[in-house]
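Case study 2.
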Amino acid sequence: MIAVLLIAAGCREKKAEQFQALPFPNVAIPSMINTPEDAAEYMAVNFWNLLTDASRNYPSDSLLVSGVRKGEVEQKFADWTSVLDMVSPVVVEESVSRVYDRALACERKDSSSNVFETLVNLFQKYFYDPNSPLRDEERYLPFVCRYASYEGLSEVEKEKYEREARLCSLNRVGHKAADFRFSDRRGRMMNLYDVKAELTLLFFSNPGCEACMNIINVLRGEPAVSRLITDGRMAVVNVYIDEDIQEWMSYMPVYPEEWYNGFDPDLVLRNNDLYNIRAIPSLYLLDSEKRIIMKDAPEGRLFNYLSSF
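Prediction:
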């Protein structure tokens, strides 16, 4: 019996090696759709329909995803994220949920298919990896809420993804940010909600952090961005969340005096689930009512937004 299985596996590998890779199966926009907005919505929701067709039967291995080269699938995933930029949050959630459910159907029909595994990895890489320039917890949330209940996870994995889903649910875009208090270098206390400005940039940083320094330089030197600060339209709340206050104090000359520079004396930001600060630096953009416009925003996306504000 074992020999038969080995022979069958060898035949599948040989078949995959000999297979001529297919192009990614693009979905066509129906002719009755005639506005850019409707076309974007259709593509966002239906982009993956053909690749995630559970009746599709093409080789899958370390290089192929249902007959398509894995590198091309990843490029298409990146293209899809650009389509998601054109649609509403409601459509984004519908789109993410749909592709996950369809990929799971592929997995349940044929567990040797790597459609599900590949898309799971891409969701995590693009939307949740702290180093991804496209990270976006709003897009990751509908995925991880579903993935946390996937029957193929161990109990440890299930707990991990349930926690990720809970943390991604904190401080959602469009909702008011959680308030907290911070202390300046003289020991004066204030709350986030005490800061009054058209925009508030909440900047979680560390002394000596090179990426933080790059952000500081842009906030100081990019005219369209620095003008928002000098004109009083945007306040920068720069908060240190760790314990080495002496190191933070020594870095004070680096921080512009017109910012609100403080540290968390209660360590609630680091120890409690008030904000999902997975890496430093982390940037949140708030409106005048402290509603979240951008959450843990990649610097490029944030500065592009501010430059046109």
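The first strand starts at residue 64 and ends at 65.
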